[in-house]
Amino acid sequence: MEILKERILQDGKCFEGGILKVDSFINHQMDPMLMYQIAEEFVTRFKNENINKIVTIEASGIAPAILVGYAMQLPVVFVKKKQPKTMENMLTTTVHSFTKDRDYTVCISNNFLTSDDRVLFIDDFLANGNAAMGMIDLINQAGATLSGMGFIIEKAFQEGGKILRDKDIHVESLAIIEDLSNCEIKIR
After folding, report:
1. CA-based, 20 to 30 A from 90: which of 1, 14, 55, 160?
2. SS3 content of the chain, % helix, strand, coil (to 5)
3. pTM for this one?
4. Positions at the binding site for xanthine
5. Sorted alphabetically, which CDD domains does this protein's record hold (predicted)?
6. Domains of the chain with bracketed CATH
7. Residues 6+ apart with CB under 8 A from 122
């Protein structure tokens, strides 16, 4: 994904504490042409997995997940950060946000995540792996099968990728950031 790497270097902004902002093209204002190319790349990388559902956590993962679902002709479900009063058969877990430095109780209805599902999880970032671990918990609670996890950007200097790969999870990251020291973006 050379085009993604170029955009990160051109439009990404680095902040103290290992924060990379890509809000001008991925998670606030979106470049739909780039997002579709990202989806096509995920489809290619996961084409040999037996997947019947795409899942993400709101909010930044929704756009890429919908495009992956569209390209794969599969339903997309997003885990919610606020528990609606009307949700039936709720499964919950706690996820810590690295960027916002707070915990969220997230939920999904077991009506939309079941033991028949073979899940591809899509998200914008992989840092410490907190959202991914929360998703694994929800998948396990539902008795579903995790077929793979796709991330637009992975921060290799944080532990999330190692944790997931050590669990033998099929992880695909389209751009891997080696380092953000001195607010200089170094991509693998």
Report:
1. 160
2. 30, 35, 35
3. 0.93
4. 20, 27, 155
5. PRTases_typeI
6. 2-187 (3.40.50.2020)
7. 42, 54, 55, 56, 61, 64, 65, 68, 149, 150, 151
